[in-house]
Amino acid sequence: MASYVCTGLVGVLGMILAAHRVRRERTLADVRFVADIAQRVLLRPVPHRIGSLHLESLYRSAAAEARIGGDLYEAVPTRYGVRLLIGDVRGKGLLAVETAAALLGAFREAAHDEPALPALADRVETSMNRRAVLLGGSEVGERFVTAVFAEIPLGEPLVRVVNCGHPPPVRIRSGEVRELDRGRSAPPLNLGVLLGEPYHVDVYSFRPGDQLLLYTDGITETRDPAGSFYPLLERLRSWSSLPPRELLERLNQDLLAYSGDRPQDDIAALAVRLPADEPLLPLPAPPG
After folding, report:
1. Of 50, 74, 3, nearest to 269 (Cα)?
2. Residue 172, Cβ neighbours under 10 Å: how many?
3. pLDDT grade, residue 261 (50/70/90)?
4. Are 184 and 163 in contact (CB under 8 A)?
5. What is the C-alpha separation between 98 and 72, in angstroms, rounded?
6. Strand pairing partners for 184?
7. Cα 42 vs. chain centroid, distance in angstroms?
8. What confidence tens digit (pLDDT) does each residue in 83-135 have?
9. Of 92, 162, 194, 263, whose CB is crowded by the most CB atoms within 10 A?
């Protein structure tokens, strides 16, 4: 009789545990579904083509359960050219996601209105400062974002860059890989008011056949099991002939292999190429 009772109790316990597991799996599926929707709103895929430019984006969260974080990117066609943004919010969690959403909203709106790139960065900075003050708390001075604003005007063989404490963009040209950095980086967003330094715009040539890579520091700070940092420029020299989609796919796979399939940080990247064998196409008319 005792054996029958024990068997029955074990069976009931197994049913309870199985039902609990099913509920947890359903809850996790619902959370992931909501997170996927949130990511599509916050980090919507960039168009694969804007005028003559070919674009691709990459985003990967370090946590398998997470879908969104503080890394961000955007590409907006305007009457001033195609304007690009890559950024990295300090910190993790909901606050980082909220800050990224505020930054993207400010950029998407101001990109159509501000004729100069430094003015665009300044307007986004102002929006971030207002938001930080409204949030209050003891972390106001720590809610900063490193970012790069870039602009590729139609019909001009150049790219304009305003760097706000972020890793510099990389230009790939006929096997040559060069960081676009003249050492004039401004402070990160939300710290500029404290330091009072102006935004500098640097201009670089960007000819047909060139490719531009904007990325967050989760890429260059990836370590192998021995603790060595990921050699991004060296890898890019081997992949200089790849178009944007293949380039980012190869980069993502190589980062996973380099880290032993153990991502250590969120990563985001934006690749833009001006084909050498295609005619210049006009940008789509901006909304409004």
Report:
1. 74
2. 23
3. confident
4. yes
5. 12
6. none
7. 11
8. 999 999 877 667 777 888 889 999 999 999 999 999 999 999 988 888 777 66
9. 162
Q: Say which residue, 242 or 128, is predicted with more confidence.
A: 242
Could you tell me if residue 51 is left (phi over 0), alpha (psi between -120 and 50 degrees) or otherwise beta?
A: left
Measure CA 74 to chain center: 8
Distance separating alpha carbons of residues 8 and 109, to the nearest angstrom:
64
Rounded to a whole number, what is the distance in angstroms from the first to the last CA of the chain?
80
pLDDT of residue 279: 59
